Amino acid sequence: MPAFEYRQAEEIRATFARHQIRYLFLGKSGAILLGFPDTTQDADIFIIAAGADGHIVHIRHCG
C-alpha cells in the first residue's frame, strides 16, 4: 500500500465537502497536511456524527 499523500487528502476533503460531512484528520495523516514529511501507511479520519446512516453511503463513494 502506498503512503498517504496530500493529493489523497484533497480528494477526501472534496468528497466530504460535496456531501456536507464534517470530519477531522488525525495522526500522521493530519501531520502530512501540516507539512511534516514522515508518514505511515494509514489515514485516521474522525467523522462527526450527524445522521450517520446517510454518511455511510457517501463514505463508500470515497472507495
Task: Summarize, please.
The protein is an alpha+beta fold and 63 residues long.
Topology readout:
Elements: H1 6-18, E1 23-26, H2 27-33, E2 44-47, H3 52-61
Low-confidence stretches: none
Largest sheet, spatial ordering of strands: 1-2
The class by helix and strand makeup works out as alpha+beta
Summed up, the domain count is: 1
The tally of strands reads 2
Query: What pattern of helices and strands is seen along the backbone?
Result: HEHEH
Query: What is the end-to-end distance?
Result: 14 Å
Helix content: 40-55%
Radius of gyration: 12 Å
Treating each run of at least 4 consecutive H or I residues as one helix, how many helices?
A: 3
Return the average pLDDT rounded to an integer.
Answer: 72
* Main beta-sheet annotation: 2 strands, antiparallel
Strand content: 5-15%
Q: Which word captures the global form? A: elongated
Description:
There is one protein chain. The chain has 63 residues and is an alpha+beta fold. The chain has one domain (6-61). The chain is 48% helix and 13% strand. The protein is built from 3 helices and 2 strands. It has helices at residues 6-18, 27-33, 52-61, and strands at residues 23-26, 44-47. A two-stranded antiparallel sheet has the order 1-2. The longest helix has 13 residues, at 6-18. The radius of gyration is 12 Å and the shape is elongated. The two termini are 14 Å apart.
